[in-house]
Amino acid sequence: MDYRATETNGQATLFFAGELEMAVGERVGELLQQYGGRNQSVTVDFQGVSFVDSSGIGSLYFTTKELLASGKQVEIVNVREEILDILSVLGFTKALGITVGKVGETGFDAKQRDCI
Amino acid sequence: MIVCEQCPDNPDCCNCLLELRSGGSAQKVLPPRKVKVTELATMETSQAQLVAVSRTAIGLLSSTRQLLGRLEVELAFDFRIIGSGLQGINGVPYHVVDIEKVLRKEEVLERLLLEEFHTWHMSSELDPTDVLHNWKDRDDERGRLIKQELQKLSILRQIETIFLYLFDAGHLRPLGSNRADPDVEREMRRLVGEAIIHGSSLREQIVSQDGKKVFDMYASILPDQTCGIALIDVTTVIAEERKRKRREWENYRDILGVVTSGKLLLLSDEELFCLLREGHRSLAMDIQAPEDLALLRRSFKSTLEPLGFAATRLLHFLVAVNEAASNTLKHGSGGTIMLYIVPDQQLCRAVIHDQGQGILLEDLPRATLQQGFSTQNSLGAGFHVMLQYCDRIYLSSTAAGTKLILECVLTS
């Protein structure tokens, strides 16, 4: 799992790539907490995500919930069709009630990524 | 005479059963179960395969150790057998353990029976020495008193027949008019003989010669070296308890089957074993850490891709297998994952086996059907995903662990 982040005027964008699974789930939640804590709005870009499971997005789910409860804005964008289907079956999108956008926006830049 | 280590695959082989010397009640364990064996003299432990059982003895395969002397065999944390280990057949790593007692938590009837009877046996309320004084005149009265005391034990109210005997001066005679069959009385004499040799009270479960009755037999040594014997017919109790548990299990199986439109099926271990024999194993690996999951997915993908899986369907199956595999880490210390291909039926089956504490029968509906957010690190949606992405799920869960089979048709 790789990631890259940008921050501009209280708006952070986290670009994730690879497999969002049990081994990296907690780290993903920590990153969202870290960037969400110091920005008013966070966009999570899923274009590079090729696999998700319930353990991998569990921490992301709970952190997103906390940020929303504290008045922050969170959106998830550029989700591949097949990954969106898995998120839907997991109940992720319905339970959070947030915008989850399909692929179509700016993608992940592999050259600038860090490894989780 | 050779004991085949693949005995369950050879239906004609009965050597392991014959060695138990238990008549028709002995059964093979299909599939063989891994058990922990502790030698009570040294407290050294080892692993063995439980391959045969009867009411009075079990058969173990152990190629690493000689299982002799007094042993504790741990089938599960709350299911243990204490017994004496013997070499089953010379030259073969097969050992017979004669059961002394069975320690169970959930089998309340059996547990209570033993404990309550032990309490009675040790109690001064029924000091057996009293039976010796003027017994000729007081037989009826003593018999009545003992029965009266036994009636206080609620569990024994369910028992139809109790025989009380006294062994004195080489003669075995009943207290009262009830008399057991001659073959059972022979067993009593044998047990009394062993109790006198050991100088301690003994308990044994026996089956009548026709195989239709099961008795709990207790021989209690008295201070003057005579012996009191209680023989309790537990046939009905055992049969009723088994029927009750079986009915309960069938109810859960039916409900889960109906609610999931036949997608989730509870099966016995033996049924699961037979199911897997329909296919051939293509892959097997252990999952011990979250980092193993990626390798598992890659291995499954490279094995299944050439079989003609559509990309999305393969992804969904991998997600389901991954959820089941990660469950073994969440609820235990990992497990074993295997992949079976059944070419005749154009399907594959992933087998996920862990040796955790299992899912209690009453928790099964909630564990398998309720989609919730139960922990901080997981969405608690594992079974929901499996049900959505697999064609069928077979489940067998006991205190010794859980076996889950995820089935996916290749061509749909």
Structure, described:
The complex is a heterodimer of chains A (116) and B (412). Chain A has 116 residues and is of the alpha/beta class. Chain A has one domain (2-111): Transcription Regulator spoIIAA (2-Layer Sandwich). Chain A contains four helices and six strands. Chain A has a six-stranded mixed sheet, covered by helices on one side. In chain A, a hairpin with a 2-residue loop joins strand 1 and strand 2 (11-20). In chain A, helix 1 (22-37) packs parallel to helix 2. The longest helix of chain A is centred in the N-terminal third of the chain and has 16 residues, at 22-37. Chain A is globular. The N and C termini of chain A lie close together (6 Å). The model of chain A is unreliable at 105-113 (pLDDT under 50). Chain B is of the alpha+beta class and 412 residues long. Chain B has three domains: 7-104, Thrombin, subunit H (Beta Barrel); 108-233, 2-Layer Sandwich (Beta-Lactamase); 248-409, Heat Shock Protein 90 (2-Layer Sandwich). In chain B, the strands form three sheets. Chain B has a six-stranded antiparallel barrel with strand order 1-2-3-6-5-4. A six-stranded mixed sheet of chain B has the order 12-16-17-15-14-13, sandwiched between helices. A five-stranded antiparallel sheet of chain B has the order 8-7-11-10-9. In chain B, helix 8 packs antiparallel against helix 9 and helix 9 packs antiparallel against helix 11 (382-389). Chain B starts with 14 loop residues before the first helix and ends with a strand. The chains are: A alpha/beta (116), B alpha+beta (412).
